[in-house]
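#struct-pred

JT: dropping the chains for the assembly here, can someone run the whole complex?
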Amino acid sequence: MLLKDLRTEVLEANLELVKRGLVLYTFGNASGIDRDQGLIVIKPSGVDYDQLRPEHMVVTDLHGTIVDGNLKPSSDLDTHTLLYREFLTIGAVVHTHSEFATSFAQAGLAIPPLGTTHADYFYGAVPCTAPLHDEAIAGRYVHETGLAIVNHFKQHGIDPLAVPACLVNGHAPFAWGRNAHDAAHNAVVLEAVAKMAYNTLTLVSNHTGVSQALLDRHYFRKHGAAATYGQ
Amino acid sequence: MLLKDLRTEVLEANLELVKRGLVLYTFGNASGIDRDQGLIVIKPSGVDYDQLRPEHMVVTDLHGTIVDGNLKPSSDLDTHTLLYREFLTIGAVVHTHSEFATSFAQAGLAIPPLGTTHADYFYGAVPCTAPLHDEAIAGRYVHETGLAIVNHFKQHGIDPLAVPACLVNGHAPFAWGRNAHDAAHNAVVLEAVAKMAYNTLTLVSNHTGVSQALLDRHYFRKHGAAATYGQ
Amino acid sequence: MLLKDLRTEVLEANLELVKRGLVLYTFGNASGIDRDQGLIVIKPSGVDYDQLRPEHMVVTDLHGTIVDGNLKPSSDLDTHTLLYREFLTIGAVVHTHSEFATSFAQAGLAIPPLGTTHADYFYGAVPCTAPLHDEAIAGRYVHETGLAIVNHFKQHGIDPLAVPACLVNGHAPFAWGRNAHDAAHNAVVLEAVAKMAYNTLTLVSNHTGVSQALLDRHYFRKHGAAATYGQ
Amino acid sequence: MLLKDLRTEVLEANLELVKRGLVLYTFGNASGIDRDQGLIVIKPSGVDYDQLRPEHMVVTDLHGTIVDGNLKPSSDLDTHTLLYREFLTIGAVVHTHSEFATSFAQAGLAIPPLGTTHADYFYGAVPCTAPLHDEAIAGRYVHETGLAIVNHFKQHGIDPLAVPACLVNGHAPFAWGRNAHDAAHNAVVLEAVAKMAYNTLTLVSNHTGVSQALLDRHYFRKHGAAATYGQ
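RK: done, full complex below.
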């Protein structure tokens, strides 16, 4: 079976989303990429999670052409492929409609870095894209969704691995990482961070975030050459 | 046993409500209709969910006269029968007191379409009925509850399958669908949508909803001849 | 064993509170009364719920004198006994620190009847007592807690079976009923009603409650000679 | 094995945090001290909770020098050791990013004593430290975190066993107790108290807390020579 290990990793990332309560029914999808072969493994569309097996995963090239698989890929495929083409350091993408991250996306609000939990994973605010124009919605909508993410990161000079998630305005979050495990992990932490940001902002509405010094301290504790966290 | 398959489907819809945390104790009820025979299968009143069996379901005609069954039907029967008589395309009705949808009903507020999760299922706001007059409450109350729903949909020209749910003012939601599975599914998604709407509106109180273009895009992605979602 | 059946009923009521998520650790307690013998069965203080057996229950008379049992009774005993002495129609009392009912008690706010879920169980607002004076707190505090409840009901002419719960200001709820099963059931529904009232009031802060007609309709549907709910 | 019993107690305290939903992934850590030997047992950094065994615990002296163990200790070690050096009556320390306590820490708000649940465990507000200066963050950050806690308690004359928890500004809570069981218990109750304080303050924003008389009554009911709670 083509890309057997990657299929298993992508399946496990999908199931992690279910286990952590981030998806309802068939909402949500995860994918991973084999950069050497330029092939993407993605969840099929609308299949129950408890029936998903590695062989159900769909394999496409970087432009979404199906290379292997009998099922239709996730309807969000074109967002995934664009992220892989534009963010060359990422190895996996996850999309959920998790409750609190989606609520911020619906509100059109970025999630400001309000504490160290956030800073341990996201080096600055998790941004929210600009709303799509009607033409973009009526046109190549799923592709345009990816463009809105990519454009925001490029215009603001954000490293996708330093802030491995983005809220799509009026829609829901995308998260990513070096591999499928990390992408799912980031999506789970994003939801926890969003929940605490919701609580914090409903207690103190004008909070804008922690200091740059705290962001630096926590982010570099877990990332980069000087990281000290874990074994 | 009369309508054996429909009894099983209606029972499964009732149990899905329990599994998803939408009902407490014996709150909530689901029914389904056999349009050919003009017969309705509905949950009995006040029976514990873990004791419910297909043979406990009550069969009535379209005006609520019991055709088969020894137990009393759900006390909300007259709302169900009216919805079946007036909304000819629906095949099942579900009623719950699920937490967030009920909170909007208690607030007398429609749930505006704040994002794509909503738009995937409800083509516009999930409306809230006008409060009942005292005479309606003291009179044929359960029937009047159905009338309030039907009148709202007719006056606003809403297709019941395009917006398969309604909040009853000061009471709780009703949802429906082509069959019992869909009706329960819609009730579950309604609760998720209501929860995220609550979060969104408590972050940004003056949000009125996404664009018509986004509503169109998401709704028609899942519904109608051009639907592309799922297998 | 003295009062074997009542011990079992009281134990089951205590465990129902755990099952429904109303108590943390050893918080909360339930009791029941045998009116013929004038004897009360109550949970012992500070014993883990998973170790509770019928023989651990403490039996006291109506003034709290221990008649049977080696363990100390719940520290809230004097509130229970006063409620039994003053509310002659009740057969059981339950006390929890359930999250949302306690939050209203801490806010010093009654829970207004905002919808039919409330009206099905509580015929009007669930009241909140006046704060205790410092002398009452420093004196017979647990007894004074009961007095605050009883005084509120007497001064406002509320039938304890029509509104089978009260919030103690700055403390938490007490609920009761004809028997231990009903008292625990009322405590569970109170928490659900409090949660939805919280949501409703944070959406629409000036909501004062549903009409008297709706209160009448729902309350009498489930209570009294003309009740139509259930089998 | 050195300090076998303490290792087991500390492990159990760590697992209690998981069981009660206070930690996500490898967030959170607990430690305990053997005062006679001057040795601290602490959770290793970044190890999955379901793989933790007593032999994985790390033993250090009061200044954080590792005495026994092959794994790296929790990255929060220097906060733990400082608390043990300065708060001589405590026997264990717990750190979590539990949702509501962390939300108050992010908001920079103390948790005021809004009811008896709080008063049973915390004799006054659970304080929130002042934000750290950039130099402290860039310097001995984990040590400075402990200093911020200790300085607050000393400046305000708070007995660490009377208020066995503190919120670190922009970070999360620390809790402690006479032993590992008590420290974990206090962390769990702190989260419940924080959740109810959140609800209370979003209902009544200007609430400042219960009376000193109520604080006294409840605190001394459970603590000190005149305690009457439990067996």
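JT: nice. Strands of chain B lie at 29-34, 39-42, 58-61, 66-68, 92-95, 165-167, 173-177. The two ends of chain B are 34 Å apart (CA to CA).
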